[in-house]
Amino acid sequence: MKQLALTLVLTLVATVMPHAIAQQGPEKDSTDTVARPRPKRPGTDGTSTNSPNNNAPAVKETQPSDKIESKYKKKPGETNVEGPSFRADATTVTLDVAVLDSKGNFIPGIPKGNFRILEDGVPQNIATYGIGEGNLTVTMVIEFSNLYQQYWTETWYQTLTAAYGFLETLKPEDYVAVVAYDLRPEILSDFSTDKRKAYEAMQRLRIAGFSESNLYDALTDTADRMSEIEGRRAIVLISTGVDTFSKLTFDKTRKIIQNAGVPIYAIGMMQAMREYYDARGAMGPIARLDFLQADNQMRTFAKESGGMSFFPRFYGEFPSIFQAISSSLRNQYVLTYTSSNQAHDGKFRQIRIELVNPATNEPLRVTDQKGKPIKYQIISSKKGYNGPREVE
Q1: Which residues contact 259 (CB under 8 A, 6 or more apart)?
Q2: Domain count, the chain
């Protein structure tokens, strides 16, 4: 990919300074990776200290002479009697769903009966339904390379403004990790509710090391690590969207992101600068095409993961963007269903969520207080999943 030298050196009066935040909650040991499950430590009795059976009351062992009479008695001439059978291989799917209006505001009060879940076009029975505001587990994936984030340039300042600004919107009980990438992704701070660790990590975002920006590798690595986390989770991507030479292709990156089920909220950098250079003929056709492709990649990753994409041109747009992300993540409908497809074929199953009028089976019409129709969008944490495979 062609490298574009777009540096606009500004003399900045203000310096980005993090705000000190008091530590919240007990201190937690961090791991050396993002979202890798912590191995269980053996107890003194040889059992896992994390096992729920450690505190269970002792159970008296049944001696061979003790007989427990079963109600399934053999009849004369019978050699085998089958007891009740139980299925433990049912596939249960959990979906975090947000319904937003055209301004990005959460639409509350939608009953369970108005939701319809389709798996590969087949309607599914909704097992559980709930509404709530939960804590977040967020990874901030920040592009920081000499390709565009040279020291004291406009893009450098814009990147730090977006990163620090979003961090300030998180609540004390939210978990956050910081990952920066250029040639490769680097975990600057692991998940913690102590925001001071994230601020200290971003102090390292001063002088970039490499002039490469491998977006695909950084995004898939983070999404794969976060796929094992339960609860409300998200990736906030602050990037130009340009990828130089990642090991993965665009198509493979899409598949990995879809399977991970982690929503991506993408914030595209350099929008105003690109318009400025383009309007003055300082941007060639190849560079213009590269940036258009970068924006399309950001939109695709966000849409297919159940997130949102933003392309701000002014600094004043950041607060509304952070508010839209928070509203989408915190206020959600939680739906679960047991898949009617019990085949163990390992194939990808597509999920689509609709709002319908159960009486007419037509799309649900949402109106405001004045009775005017509202355009809405449905954002789901999962667009599909791979079915189970046969155990060999």
Answers
A1: 227, 348, 384, 385, 386
A2: 1
